[in-house]
Amino acid sequence: MAALTTEQTMIREQASAWVREQAPVKAFRKMRDSGLPARFESSTWAAMVELGWTGIIVPEQYGGSGLGYLSFGIVLEQTGRQLTASPLFASALVGATALVLGGTDAQKQSWLPKIVDGSAIFTLAVDEGARHAPARTALQATRQGAGYRLSGKKTFVLEGGTATHLIVAARTSGSVGDANGITLFVVPADAARITRTDLSMVDSRGYADFSFEGVDVAAEAVLGSVDTGFALLEATLDRARAGLAAEMLGTASCAFDMTVDYLKTRVQFGQVIGSFQALGHRAASLFTQLELNRSCVEAALQAIDADAADIPALCSLSKARVGAFLYQASNELIQIHGGIGMTDESDAGFYLKRARTLEASFGNQAFHRDRYATLNGF
């Protein structure tokens, strides 16, 4: 575990206590069963804003605390443990990151305070198919007077159902597959000629598809530079991947704790099943992998805070490794719980379902293994 500052230790303790008491898994179950269109409780989101979590990576001059990505990862790990549903990751990490890295001062002054106070929910609209492939952006942005006209589609947009603003990756030049020719735009989600289609996903969280049918935006909507936005997009995605890996670590960690608790209490053939050597070995293997994955996640977050040269490689390493571990931990949770683990009444299924969607978000294991190898010259 990374050496945390006193402030980071306090953040971890605060986040851990709050999610257990105010937003546990049973609250997620209640939200799912209620069929809320937003896929999160407004009171949960308001509490996160009040706690200051929405401003963790936002500089102080724009209303945040500027505490960095490791501090944000500490919070995301705790929300991941309890599957707490909110736009925290999509807006306060991904959306805020794009604005901090690529926005003009006017854009930052306009939008970052609104992200911090929760009145605006930003999200990144990047993928256009079933697999993550940023360079294959095809949504067209053509010159229209002083501005641009957007035409195309975006799929599986995180928190797309409640987002007030989209950061859209569009192609202003070049061909599909080219890194050059991509530009980012800030677009109101309710702009004319945008069609939003909510999706029903296995993890019961908020996703939506968007169709842009000649959406006009001003030149001021450009985030970063025209045609050279891929570097900004990749930098934003890497920070998103590191944050998502932290959330996945929390989900896997809780799955492991639930597995161990069951091993200690379930009695079969006159003794607790944790005393059976084969099951003990499986638990020991999970614990070893948990600690190794924690090191990967914290290394990526620390590299971002230090603006290190190996941020892309470490972010892909953490996303690939934690994706594999979460897959294993969620499977073991179901298998060791046996028949009860297969029922909806057990919380185990929630962790399995969330694991599958998290693993695919912003690049699955195959994507990041290939990227890590490429970055290292293989």
Task: Describe the protein.
- There is one protein chain.
- This protein is of the alpha+beta class and 378 residues long.
- The chain folds into 3 domains: 6-119, Acyl-CoA dehydrogenase/oxidase, N-terminal domain (Butyryl-Coa Dehydrogenase, subunit A, domain 1); 123-227, Butyryl-CoA Dehydrogenase, subunit A, domain 2 (Beta Barrel); 231-375, Butyryl-CoA Dehydrogenase, subunit A, domain 3.
- It contains 11 helices and 10 strands.
- Strands 1-4-5-8 form a 4-stranded mixed beta sheet, with helices on one face. Strands 2-3-7-6 form a 4-stranded antiparallel beta sheet, with no helix packed on it. A two-stranded antiparallel sheet has the order 9-10.
- Helix 5 runs antiparallel to helix 7 (230-265), helix 7 runs antiparallel to helix 10 (348-360) and helix 9 (311-337) packs antiparallel against helix 10 (348-360).
- The longest helix is centred in the middle third of the chain and has 36 residues, at 230-265.
- The radius of gyration is 21 Å and the shape is globular.
- The two termini are 30 Å apart.
- The model has no long low-confidence stretch (mean pLDDT 96).
